[in-house]
Amino acid sequence: MTSNQTQPVGSVSQPQAIQPVRGMNDVLPGDAAAWQRLESIARDLFAAYAYQEIRVPIVEHTGLFKRSIGEFTDIVQKEMFTFDDPSGDSLTLRPEATAGIVRAMISNGLLHNQKQRVWCAGPMFRHEKPQRGRFRQFHQLDVEAFGYPGPDIDAELIMLSGRLLKAVGVERVELNLNSLGTTASRRAHREKLVAYFSAHKSKLDPDSLRRLEGNPLRILDSKNPDLKDIIAGAPLLTEYLDEESKQHFDGLRRHLDAVGIKYVLNPLLVRGLDYYSHTVFEWVTTELGSQGAVCSGGRYDGLVTQLGGEPTPAMGWALGQERIVELLRVQGVGAATNAPDIYFVIAGQRAEAEGLALAERLRDSVAGLRIETHCGGGSFKSQMKRADKSGAAYALILGDSETERRVVGLKSLRVEQPQVEVAWDALAEELKGRVTR
Fold first, then answer.
1. Is there a contact between 328 and 284 (Cβ–Cβ < 8 Å)?
2. Is pLDDT at 351 greater than 90 in this prediction?
3. What is the bridge-based pairing of β-strands 52-53 and 116-125?
4. pLDDT in tens, 392-413
5. Residues paired with 411 in a beta bridge
6. Can you give the C-alpha Rg of the chain in angstroms?
7. How far apart, in whole angstroms, are the C-alpha atoms of residue 326 and residue 332?
8. Measuring CA to CA, which residue among 175, 164, 173, 154 is closest to residue 254?
9. Minimal CA–CA distance to 138: which of 271, 318, 292, 320?
């Protein structure tokens, strides 16, 4: 309101509604079932492969990510949510989970003469342009293994990721595979790469020029279509792999071939983080626009040492939950639901006095039974409308007359069946026979 505007006497201005932070989205009740289903399947699969859950803070010292992810990455230079706490310490909302898990392993002494298989889930934060499949707060499932030097653990982790995608119903995804080799092989390749791109310096975009000085391998990952032909002519890292790297990669491929996992060798596949070595992989789709990777990972044998621990081989991957939920929607996979099994219609003074207690007894007697009990009064007609809208398979109907006779009406809401009356004492067994998972 400007200074020359007046507000009517006695009126109260309406406070302006607070909007969500851009790129940080609500998961509403109607969508939560798909998330819960994904997380439930993942939790069971991780247990089946003997991976244990670990929970790490969403805030870490900024230096952790500078040392692990790399000073010349887009994440550190442009995308981190960093702030000073009241003590003056620089803290950062985690942009990815691996660094924090490695920090937890070291600070809690979990790597000394030990092997670890762990997983975690939760939000990550990157300040980048929000778009389909990419948000400023996003959620990942993250799986890591420590202390296993051979390609067998690489294969197991890829098998686990593939099994998870299949279990939740994802279709039409492709496994891309590459090797980044050892530090020595990457050093030899880096010299050739810098020489090659320096000869084409006038055609590079600003991002690629910056990467040329710090991490030239990342130029191969550029999404700029104008650089496609230049990148296609760049020397490939696979041409500089040493014998150790070749043997590791060949071993991985033999394991995948043995279980029939198909893959595409992609020599341009690199990771955006500096700590990777040897195996890198992505499960990709063409159905989410430019955000094609739904699960990405690889080996990072040098990271534990880089963060102050003893030399420890390590391998892991991260899966984007928003992208999986969106991909399932795009592919028409049936939506998960949290609809109740029973909607309990309660109409009348005596019924209201007994209804909640009867619902509690049913929950005690029938494990896993989902009952939505009507609260707040209302006519029988309005309650039946809500029962139908709830998605429940059945309505239990309790009025004063039924309460006096200690029975309830049982009405099918989805299939044409006659309504029946069931005695309270027999109700639990009747529902066990009708409600199945």
1. no
2. yes
3. parallel
4. 999 999 999 999 999 999 999 9
5. 395
6. 28
7. 10
8. 154
9. 320
Q: Which residues pair with 413 in a beta bridge?
A: none
More reliable by pLDDT, 372 or 73: 372
Q: Which amino acid appears at position 185 of this protein?
A: S
Strands across the sheet containing 82-84:
59-61, 90-93, 82-84
Distance separating alpha carbons of residues 154 and 317, to the nearest angstrom? 10
108 to each of 52, 62, 69, 102, how far by Cα in Å? 15, 19, 21, 10
Task: Quote the CA–CA distance of 125 and 91 in Å, as a whole number.
Answer: 13
**What is the DSSP-derived secondary structure letter of residue 21?**
P
For residue 314, give the H/E element and its range.
strand 314-320
From its phi and psi, is residue 220 left (phi > 0), alpha (psi between -120 and 50) or beta?
alpha
Q: Which of 209, 179, 178 is nearest to 194 (CA)?
A: 209
With H, G, I as helix, E, B as strand and everything else as coil, classify residue 40: helix
Q: Give 17's DSSP letter.
A: P
**CA-to-CA separations, 437 to 370, 401, 433, 434, in angstroms, rounded:** 11, 32, 11, 10
Neighbours of 104 (CB within 10 A): 17
In what helix (H) or strand (E) does residue 349 lie, and over which residues does it extend? helix 349-365
The separation between CA 208 and the C-alpha centre of its own chain, rounded to angstroms, equals: 29
Q: How many C-beta atoms lie closer than 10 Å to residue 319's C-beta?
A: 24
| Joined tokens for residue 47 | 């247990």
Tell me the pLDDT tens digit for each residue of 23-36. Answer: 999 999 888 999 99
Name the DSSP letter for residue 71: T
CA 179 to chain CA centroid, nearest Å: 25
CB atoms inside a 10 Å sphere around CB 184: 12
Give the start-end residues of each E strand in 101-155: 116-125, 137-146
pTM over 0.90: no
Q: What is the DSSP string of 376-403?
A: S---HHHHHHHHHHTT-SEEEEEEHHHH
CA angle 336, 338, 344 (to 5 degrees): 145
- The single-letter code of the amino acid at 326 is E
CB of 307 within 8 A of CB of 99?
Answer: yes
Rounded to an integer, what distance in angstroms lies between the CA atom of residue 126 and that of residue 138?
A: 8
Q: How far is CA 356 from CA 340, 346, 364, 377, 432, in A?
A: 16, 9, 13, 13, 19
pLDDT at residue 263 tops 90: yes
| Phi, then psi, of 78 in degrees rounded to 5 | -130, -20
